[in-house]
Structures are given as structure tokens and as C-alpha cells.
Amino acid sequence: MRPAGITYRRWAARGAHFGIIAAFVAFCAFPFYWMLITTFKDVHDLINTANNPFLFNLPPTLDNLRVLFGETRYVRWVLNTLVVAVGVVGITLLLSVPAGYSLACLSGRWGRQWAIGIFLTYLIPPTILFIPFSRIIGALGLQDSLWSLVLVYPSFTVPFCSWLMMGFFKAVPRDIEEAAMMDGLSRFAAFLKVVVPLSSSGILTVVIFSATLAMQEFVYALTFITSSSQYTVGVGVPTFLVRGDVYFWGSLMGACLIVSVPVAVLYNSFLDRFVAGFTVGAIK
């Protein structure tokens, strides 16, 4: 039989482990709980400071969702955001994957310098590029068009994603690619059929990173888009649900909850691949 002291310490360690995990889960899930309960709270329940903010003191209501869907163009904003995100992801993949592969194949001093130079462009603050981009968008006649965002956002995503994909392609053993070419595949065919599938974690990371940036960016979307029918969620929601010093908290939380839940599910569904995408090369 095991000594009672060892058994006690083991159960205490398990309890502490469970307590830490439970506290972490509660900390991460609390914003979603807050958004959910605020979405269905009555306005009088929200503004009464004597009420418990974590519970329903009055019966739940659907008025906040009615305001969100009936008095704003929320559905149109969500569709606009999806269009921009899909366009940005497509352009980012089209440019960053070949660029990353080319940098991975470019060995020597020039390869390192090009890789560092591309990554440094990602570190340039977007506010510095604001005026040049405005001139370009005006010259192209893309004001108040979603295409302005589709063309501008890749300037933020492509440099970082190219650098990220370079690390992934370098992690793929060259012997595998050379063996595929010896079997009769061309370099391009070996790249598509061998290298790309082995780098799926990096490609998924690029997709999530690009889509998230396109969904949450605010400054450029606010400046380049002027009509409400072309707004994205990040601009339309605060513009129409914050009127002076009046905040429609229930509708605001409902809008945030509807958008954030799919993103959270996406992140958690591919968490292992996403972490692998940002930590590639950390362990050899």
C-alpha cells in the first residue's frame, strides 16, 4: 500500500492542477458570458447600478437583437467583412506562398538579407502609409469601395506571411522534394504535391492571420469607406450603435458575440496547427 502522505500529496497536486485549469477557463470564457448575458438584458436592468450585473434581474428580452438586425445593416456589414476577408486571404496566399518558397530556396547572404528586408516592411507602422495609400486609392477611383480594403490590407499581411512561410518551407527536408523530382515530377509539381501539403500548418496560419486582420482593422476601413452599405463590421457597429454619449450596450454585445464566436471556434478547432505555424523552427 502507498503511504497516506504520498496519496494526499498526489490528490492535492491534482486538485491544484484542476483549480488552475478551471480558473484559466473561467477567465477566458468570461468575456463570452458577459456578451451573452448583456445581449439579452433589458435596458433598465443594464442601467440600474443596484442590480447584479452578472445575472438577469429582469426577464430576458430580444429587443437588443431587434435593434441590431432591424435598425442597422448588420447582416450587410457581416457579408462585406466576409468579402474583404476572402479577398485578402486569397491575395495573401497567392503572393506569400511563392515568395516564401523562393526565399527558402535562396541560400547565402542575399537570401538572409531579402528575408530580413521583407520582414522589416511588416514593422512599418500603418499610420505612416496612410497618406500614400489614400493617394493611390484616389488615383484608382476606389473610394467608398470594398476593393480599396482588399488591395490595401495585403500590404500588411504579405510581408509577415512571406517570412512565416519561408520558415515553414525551410523546415521541409530537401531530400523529400529531390526524391519527388527524381520520380519524374517537375519542380513546380513537386512544390504543389509534396512541399505544400507538408506546409499545411503554415498555410492555415496565414489564412487565420490574414482573415483576422481583415475583420478587425478599423482606421483604413473608416477612412476609405463612407457609405453605410459598404461598411465592415468593425466600422458599422460602433458608428451606428454609439450615438453621442448613448451606448446601445445590448446591441453592441450582441454584434460582438455573433462575430467572435465563429472566430473562437475556428481558432480552437485548429489550435495545434496554428501554434505550430508560429513556432516552426523553434525546436530542431
Briefly characterize the structure:
It is found in: Cell membrane. With 284 residues, the protein is an all-alpha fold.
What is the strand tally?
2
Main β sheet profile: 2 strands, antiparallel
For this structure, what is the CATH class of the largest domain?
Answer: Mainly Alpha
Mean pLDDT: 83
CATH homologous superfamily of the largest domain? MetI-like
Q: Report the radius of gyration as a whole number of Å.
A: 24 Å
CATH topology type of the largest domain: MetI-like fold
What's the number of structural domains? Answer: 2
Q: Helix/strand-derived class?
A: mainly alpha
User: Strand portion, in percent?
Assistant: under 5%
Q: What CATH architecture of the largest domain would you give? A: Orthogonal Bundle
SSE arrangement, N to C: HHHHHHHHHHHHHEEHH
Shape: flat
Percent range of helical residues: over 70%
Strand order of the largest sheet: 1-2
